[in-house]
Design brief:
The structure holds 2 protein chains of 2 kinds. Chain A is an all-alpha fold. Chain A has a domain of about 80 residues. Helix content of chain A is about 75%, strand content about 0%. Chain A is extended and about 70 Å long. The two termini of chain A are about 15 Å apart. By secondary structure, chain B is of the alpha/beta class. Chain B has 2 domains: about 55 residues; about 210 residues, 3-Layer(aba) Sandwich (Rossmann fold). Chain B has a 6-stranded parallel beta sheet with strand order 3-2-1-4-5-6, sandwiched between helices. In chain B, helix 2 packs antiparallel against helix 12 and helix 6 packs parallel to helix 8. Chain B is elongated, with a radius of gyration of 21 Å. Chain B starts with a helix and ends with a helix. The chains are: A mainly alpha, B alpha/beta. At the A-B interface, helix 2, helix 4, helix 5, helix 6 and helix 7 of A face helix 2, helix 5, helix 6, helix 9 and helix 12 of B.
């Protein structure tokens, strides 16, 4: 029964969602609303579960002195530094209002730190491009040329450099062409492949063929 | 010499990139920003809305993506408030409503709105963050009030003036999704557009934009602004120049530096290979 009950729930919920997509009328519209509300509640609990799990994993790491355990202290300190002012010293429900302790931390600590982490990519991308973008093969040359046109076409200086070319052949227009045709064609192929994969995996789950998520064999 | 060039210390590249990013911030060079057809569609759709029309803005990003997406948010908000469009803000990312607040603050500090600043529950409402990813969009298709029982200030949404007559997507004239990943534009297309036939435009980070191009061609997206260039294009169209335009110069120089390094690297590679 440990395996059958989850399989039955999966099948009922899966079929309900499929049917209500094509038949959005009673009773399927009611069922859809009910199931969506349940799932939103589960999502909300999942956030709590995630936060508690983060604490548990980090505390375990510290107590066992596992590899890189000092970073776990920073994780917990960061978690508490934003959670405690948010819950206790930011005016309750209006914790996101301008001027609260939570808002102060968000604007002056979280926002600049996370932006800095992301901004560092610019440096690593430049360094990686220098080393990796080599015209070693025909395919690599094509990639290199596409990158050249898109990078220059996506900034105003590209049109300045290509202003001597006739209308329709300037950098921005070349970049638009690459994005709209070869790039979109490739994306479509990937998207259709992913969609077919999702459909087949979903059907296997709903029909109970795929059971690995339930554990066991 | 060319061998040394191939093994150049990455810190030298970092210095060049840093200079390319920082120096242009102190320069005042006027740049011509060409508008792509995808961004023009967003502006044309906004322009076609009657005063009082309802625009839903979904802030699905966090601070790392703000340099690209925040200028888009500010430009669209300024256009909406100037043209008396009602703005409904939500976030599928927890940080989204905070980013929306920062964008609203930016609008309020603009001298254009000094005498007529946007007023909460008259010009805009912020329904806050709701966990549940695409299920939130699905829930909004049935009922906004049910999905967002309270706004981000904690006030029951049914008491908000702007929520009167707003039940689901059929009461919204235009949706603008500013997205940096999941949940984001793909989910809005799959649920709000395909399922509930809403009219949607998107502002994406430069990394994410290529992924949603097929939706523009299929007519599922009414416009797409990609990266800082998209933000600069939007600013040009709505007539409010901000950080999108300002930072384009830095981006121009940075791209140039990367291209110069790639050319130098390839030249050194071919010369050493011949040897």
């Amino acid at each position: 029964m440990r395996r059958e009950i989850p399989l039955i729930i999966t099948a009922i919920v899966g079929f309900t969602y499929i049917i209500q997509f094509f038949v959005p009328h009673w009773p399927f519209n009611i069922l859809e609303g009910l199931l969506t509300s349940w799932m939103l509640i589960i999502f909300a609990f999942a956030i709590w579960l995630g936060a508690l799990n983060l604490l548990k994993v980090s505390l375990d790491k510290i107590s066992k002195r596992s590899r890189d355990w000092p970073y776990a202290i920073i994780t917990i300190a960061g978690f508490l530094m934003i959670a405690i002012p948010g819950f206790l010293f930011s005016g309750g429900r209006r914790f996101q209002d301008p001027g609260t302790a939570f808002d102060y931390i968000y604007q002056n600590v979280y926002s600049p730190l996370s932006s800095t982490m992301f901004a560092m990519l610019a440096f690593y991308v430049a360094s990686a491009s220098y080393r990796a973008f080599r015209a070693r093969t025909k395919e690599a040359t094509l990639l290199l040329l596409a990158a050249f046109f898109v990078m220059l076409g996506r900034v105003p200086i590209g049109d300045v450099l290509s202003s001597f070319l006739p209308e329709g052949y300037r950098m921005s227009q070349m970049a638009d062409w690459i994005m709209n045709y070869p790039q979109t064609a490739g994306q479509r192929a990937i998207m259709i492949g992913i969609a077919l994969g999702i459909v087949s995996t979903s059907l296997r789950l709903i029909l109970g063929i795929e059971r690995s998520h339930l554990g066991g064999e | 010499m060319f061998d040394k060039l191939l093994k150049i210390d990455r810190r030298i590249i970092f210095i060049f990139v840093a200079l390319a990013l920082i120096v242009p911030m102190f320069l005042t060079i006027t740049q011509h920003i060409s508008v792509s057809p995808e961004v023009q569609i967003i502006y044309d759709t906004l322009k076609g809305l009657q005063p009082g029309s309802k625009v839903l803005m979904a802030f699905d990003y966090d601070p790392p993506s703000a340099p690209e997406l925040q200028p888009m948010a500010v430009a669209i908000l300024k256009y909406c408030f100037k043209n008396n469009l009602k703005v409904y803000i939500i976030g599928l990312w927890p940080q989204g409503p905070m980013q929306a607040n920062m964008a609203i603050d930016n609008v309020i500090s603009d001298p254009t709105f000094k005498d007529n600043p946007p007023i909460y529950d008259k010009d805009y409402v912020n329904l806050g963050f709701m966990s549940g990813n695409e299920l939130v969009i699905q829930g909004m298709g049935s009922s906004f009030l049910h999905t967002f029982p309270r706004d981000y200030l904690g006030k029951p949404t049914h008491q908000l003036e702007m929520m009167k007559g707003v039940n689901n997507f059929s009461n919204i004239d235009f949706i603008v999704n500013l997205s940096a990943g999941y949940p984001g534009t793909v989910e809005w297309v799959l649920f709000a557009v395909d399922r509930f036939h809403a009219k949607l435009a998107a502002g994406n980070t430069a990394v994410q934009a290529p992924q949603v191009y097929p939706y523009v061609h299929a007519g599922q997206l009414s416009g797409l602004a990609g990266g800082l260039k998209g933000a600069a294009e939007l600013e040009k169209l709505v007539g409010f120049y901000g950080k999108g335009t300002k930072f384009m110069l830095s981006q121009s120089f940075a791209h140039m530096i990367v291209i110069v390094f790639i050319i130098v690297g390839n030249a050194a590679y071919f010369i050493t290979r011949k040897k």
